[in-house]
Design brief:
Its main location: Golgi. Keywords: Glycoprotein, Glycosyltransferase, Transferase. This protein is of the alpha/beta class and about 300 residues long. It has two domains: about 120 residues, no CATH class; about 160 residues, Rossmann fold (3-Layer(aba) Sandwich). The protein has eleven helices and eight strands. The strands form two sheets. Strands 5-4-6-7-8 form a five-stranded parallel beta sheet, with helices on both faces. Strands 1-2-3 form a three-stranded parallel beta sheet.
């Protein structure tokens, strides 16, 4: 039994706070267990139906109550009772780091979790394209957010990537339809995007793929801890591009000597988030960024 409350509605935290730990907790039972949830919403349950079905033989049809996960909140309201000889309350294996497994508490690793996801979502590509063995163009998946932390010169970025020999696929989001997101990510050799929940889909990338995280101004700590460090346990290669002040839309909103630029750490989260997370876009300097794409190509040759 586990909760789908708190930040489960956020794509990154759904994986980091619940799905990874649920895998660690449920996997030893070899699907011979029922899943009981609380604090959830029907849309949250259906969104990850593939995961529930892969972990429990009793979850067969999310739309049929008797064949779905057991929502104990709904059961209580309906006056029904479910009896079990044994109940495990809560999840284990949660590491302090995002998208990670506490190795001291679990026999599983993030490699095992990624293998589980590939099997659950029927993802065929296990290894990224090795260019020394293939003549085809490597595929780069560019996540271009629409509302905030968006690329303002996406066409220029796409043109540069194509000039270097990439097959380019662009998407505006990668979190609403998990199955679609999983397929798109798994087919990519390189995935790039500005810091955001869409980069969580690195869990679906094939082994030896490359992740490029574009780090907006003042967002370094979040970029490192949410995706940079976790990537080390996933058998993917990680590259980071920290933008310069001139590449941030903040230069059009604040004077050069404003505290927004001189001392970002002085802001509390309530002040920090609206400035740097919710109202910052990126105009990528493609000349400065080009070496990062070349490095990604070099990694695919290794």
């Amino acid at each position: 039994m586990f909760s789908l409350g708190a930040y489960f509605g956020h794509y990154l935290h759904a994986f980091s706070d619940v799905l990874v730990s649920l895998f660690v907790t449920a996997r030893p039972f070899d699907r011979r267990l029922h899943l009981l949830v609380t604090d959830g919403h029907h849309l949250q349950v259906t969104k990850f139906s593939t995961v529930w079905q892969a972990l429990s033989r009793y979850v067969r049809n999310i739309s049929v109550q008797s064949e779905s996960v057991v929502d104990i909140d709904t059961v209580q309201q309906g006056g029904k009772a479910h009896c079990f000889s044994r109940v495990m309350v809560g999840l284990k294996g949660r590491d302090e780091k995002e998208l990670s497994i506490n190795s001291s508490e679990s026999q599983y690793t993030m490699k095992d979790f990624r293998h589980f996801l590939r099997s659950a979502y029927s993802l065929d590509k296990t290894t990224a394209t090795h260019l020394r063995d293939h003549d085809g163009a490597p595929r780069i998946l560019i996540i271009s957010r629409e509302k905030t932390r968006a690329f303002t010169n996406l066409e220029e970025i796409v043109t540069t990537a194509r000039e270097l020999g990439f097959e380019v696929v662009t998407v505006t989001e990668l979190d609403s339809n998990v199955s679609r997101s999983a397929r798109l990510a798994n087919r990519a050799d390189v995935m790039m995007g500005i810091h955001g929940a869409g980069l969580t889909n690195m869990v679906f990338l094939p082994e030896d793929a490359v992740v490029i995280q574009v780090v907006p101004f003042a967002v370094d700590w979040f970029a490192t801890n949410y995706f940079g460090e976790p990537s080390k346990g996933m058998e993917v290669r990680y590259l980071e591009y920290k933008i310069e002040r001139e590449e941030s839309s903040l230069v059009k909103q604040y004077p050069p000597d404003d505290v927004v630029f001189t001392d970002p750490s002085s802001f509390r989260w309530e002040e920090f988030s609206p400035i740097y997370m919710l109202n910052q876009n990126v105009t990528l300097n493609v000349t400065r960024f080009r070496p990062v794409l070349l490095e990604a190509l070099e990694l695919l040759h290794q």
